[in-house]
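Field notebook, page 344. I keep forgetting to write these up properly, so this time I am using the form the group agreed on. The chain and the ligand, phosphoric acid mono(formamide)ester, are recorded exactly as supplied. Prediction of the bound pose follows.
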Amino acid sequence: MDELPPPRHLLDWQYLSDDIWQRCLTRTLEHYHQGKQAWSQVARHRSLGLLFFNPSLRTRTSMELAAVQLGAHATTLVIGQGTWQLEWRDGVVMDGAAAEHIREAIGVLSQYYDALGVRIFASQTDYEQDREERLLNAIARAATVPVINLESAFYHPCQALADAATILDHLDGSVQRRRFVLSWAYHPRALPMAVPNSALLMAARLGMEVVVAHPPGFELDEGVLARAQADAAARGGRVTVVHDQAEAFDGAAIVYAKSWGSRLYYTSPEEEAALRQQYRHWRVTPELMARTRQAAFMHCLPVRRNVVVDDAVLDSPQAIHLKQAAFRLYAQKAILEYVWHLPP
Ligand code: CP
């Protein structure tokens, strides 16, 4: 018997060709223009299992709806709430809280479903484990059906696709050499780096003039930064890093605000909190937005009003965060089409 081809995972865009990225981007925009009433049956008799190890509003609902609107069935499992707690490490004596290993759980779910979506955030205790995506990769290895990353330790590819489509739509496709500012913002918690990593890589892939603005001590991973710089350079763009938020906003076409914790959190949460407190003033204000070229304001959401960004910005015509969230549905449809080999 012929060996089956390996499942078409979507773990991150870096593992897929430019051609696949472009195809998914085009399909996302096509779905957007068809609107949310455009239901079909192209994925009839397919099933999607969604495993959430962490909370979600947009990713969960947009993925469930995308499946249903393509004619598929979706089930959501909140791991540890009505399911067994799962162990992922190999070779451990399972005499703790976890009653089931992912080898069995994912192996079983692969028998039932035609694809699995997984949200599993960073440990924020073991940087190498997070950087190497050991949990998501262990799940992908245990699966015999496509696995879709719904936000992992280091990447959020579904968000990145929706963000790229939002920017292309907003700027009428004219993105090259336009300034994209990824601005760090204060947050009371040390958030993981998946969204800023993916936003940086996404803007670099679009060939934009990317400026990452963050206070000293909040550097993104050097490997991610190097890849973004190489991707941008290959497309006529550039990535620079500055520590001055106001300077970064000068002439911007897109402002993408995001909070993330310092890597110091991995070794000393207390020292990281003290460092982060020093930058409470890093907040997107109307004064900062006035330095831009009528830039659009983006945020992946959820966002803390008047902590990350002022009401006056979020409630202004420059804010496109709701449209950005709307694009999540259309991006999820494009991703399901890709992993399931569906015709356009
Ligand atoms: N942006 C995003 O992934 O939102 P949720 O965490 O609500 O899914």
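OBSERVATIONS:
- The CA atoms of residues 9 and 277 lie 39 Å apart.
- The longest helix spans residues 321-339.
FOLLOW-UP: compare against the apo run.
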